[in-house]
Amino acid sequence: MSYVDEVYERVVAQNPAQPEFHQAVREVLDSLRPVIERNEEKYRKEALLERMTTPERAILFRVPWVDDKGQVQVNNGYRVQFNSAIGPYKGGLRLHPSVNLGIIKFLGFEQVFKNSLTGTPIGGGKGGSDFDPKGKSDREVMAFCQSFMTELYRHVGADVDVPAGDIGTGAREIGFLYGQYKRITGKYEGVLTGKGLTYGGSLARTEATGYGLLYITQEMLKSNGIELAGKTVAISGAGNVAIYAAQKAEQLGAKVVTVSDSTGWIYDPEGIDIALLKDVKEVRRARLTEYAKARSNAVYHEGRGVFTVKCDVALPCATQNELQLDDAKALVANGCIAVCEGANMPTTQEATEYLMSNGVFFVPGKAANAGGVATSALEMSQNSMRLSWTFEEVDAKLHDIMVNIFKNIDAAAKEYGVPGNYVAGANIAGFLKVATAMEAQGVV
Ligand code: NDP
Asked: How many domains does one find in the chain?
């Protein structure tokens, strides 16, 4: 049996009931075959893949807090510190009822390669809780965040592990978490990113993932001789990534015709009204039905189906495994030319294979959405230097980083004999840097 298959079997056997983690490992290992096969004996002797697929540390903890009725609630807290070969652990905190150890491990594993691709010195980690901030009062969210940080603070630090936002963790939650860290440790340091602008946050961090997604999409299309301007774009999600992806797409001359949330989706053939979308989602924190009420041309559809519309480019920006085989078939049938992932692993493996085998350009999340964490690394730099760059400075650095990521994944795909396969390119480019650092640091 090949070394890759051996390691995959070991991961499945040792991590039962963690399908998302298995899926992420399978996808990465499969595309690393050309690299591993060139060095199979050496990597096997070093147990490099066993080490890479095993987190350095996984911390599980109790998060008790008191709700507005005086009832004590208990949630599960997680922080998986996956790999610190190239820098302190870095990765977001997800607050969503679906969170479990397997999901945090899949996200942490992906983060290692993504962070490597950014070209900034950060390792990979991820954390979160099954706490659902939806429908909670600000006081309840604060009580949860303070309790969460009361355990987490001992495991993180500006040079140790620097968490950030993710699904359910926005500016409000980061503020509460930061306040509690400072209160417990007495340290004013860049322990979290995504902070508010008045206390160490970076300009353009809010926009970074969505903007970065469009920068890399534009660069990828350009390298294939295609203009983004004038294209019709289908976006899923209506959160941080989706909103700023839609905004940048419009700025670059494309027309965004869809957004979605966990209950349904909007088709707005004249182009999504970004100001209205922001008002509904960022200010009122309401459902997309409110968007449809305010726009006579927009149609609201209940449930799935956001990728059944005619579009040139699809940008899944909501959550894992949302773009499935039926969606991929609809996209191909409708003439879609490119899918670039704003969310983490939003496309199932069979949908990815279908898209790629039908000639659709496909840029995986670990490259396409790396703009968020890259800008978090820029926030860390500004915190260490005790200064703040302007929006334009950060945006220009983000643009350069995304262009470089594309160049690196494109070059890696070509070097290993799979030109145009950006999934393989991203995994190979991300892997090689981490592998080289791990080998240099010995058996740790
Ligand atoms: P948000 O919480 O801001 O938004 C998530 C959006 O996805 C919401 O519109 C939400 O709907 C929708 N959604 C969530 N779960 C589901 C589900 N099960 N089915 C359908 N829709 C769902 O998160 P972000 O925009 O920050 O993150 C989106 C994705 O991007 C995630 O995969 C995240 O890991 C990834 N990502 C985020 C980065 C960032 O900087 N924010 C960086 C890199 C990756 P509703 O409005 O109903 O809640």
From this structure: 3
